[in-house]
Design brief:
Order of helices and strands: HEEEEEEEEEEE
Number of helices: 1
Number of strands: 11
Strand content: over 45%
Distance between the termini: 29 Å
Structural class: mainly beta
Oligomer: single chain
Length: 151
């Protein structure tokens, strides 16, 4: 039993060693408005390495869409901001949720940049803004960002 525990802890540590940031921000009253951007700051120490970036998202079963559009604003050490619009599929056409269900929430960690090389080392700021027609967007519990070193 002790060996299994040690292997489990070491397996978690390997994943955590790759992680730069993994953050979820709770959305007030599960109503995500346009002006309530989710902000994350982190530092890239080695711009030569590739990184994977993920959108973290939690929605309730009452979320009424099968997708979500977001604007991701990335500001680097040069203070220039690049904005990209992404669409993420959350459910199949038959309504089956694609996220992992835990109680009354569906969790998603979906990649939006893989093997991405940041232009330079330094401090970065990423801001995530919901970009759906509804404002506020109901039944979104949390949103956030994960950045990790690619394998």
């Amino acid at each position: 039993m002790a060996v299994c525990t040690i292997l489990f802890i070491n397996g978690c540590n390997i994943k955590d060693q790759k992680m730069i940031v993994d953050q979820n921000i709770e959305i007030d009253n599960q109503n995500w408005s346009y002006n309530n951007k989710v902000n994350t700051d982190f530092t890239i120490d080695d711009a030569a390495l590739p990184y994977n970036l993920y959108l973290n998202l939690r929605v309730t079963p009452d979320y009424k869409y099968s997708n979500i559009f977001v604007l991701i604003h990335q500001t680097g050490p040069d203070k220039k901001t690049i904005t990209t619009r992404y669409e993420f599929t959350l459910a199949n056409k038959d309504g089956e949720w694609l996220g992992q269900g835990t109680g009354n929430l569906y969790n998603y960690q979906v990649p939006f940049k893989t093997n991405y090389k940041f232009p330079e080392k330094g401090k970065y700021h990423i801001s995530i803004e919901q970009n759906m027609r509804d404002n506020p967007l109901h039944q979104v519990s949390d949103a956030g960002l994960r950045v990790e070193k690619a394998e």
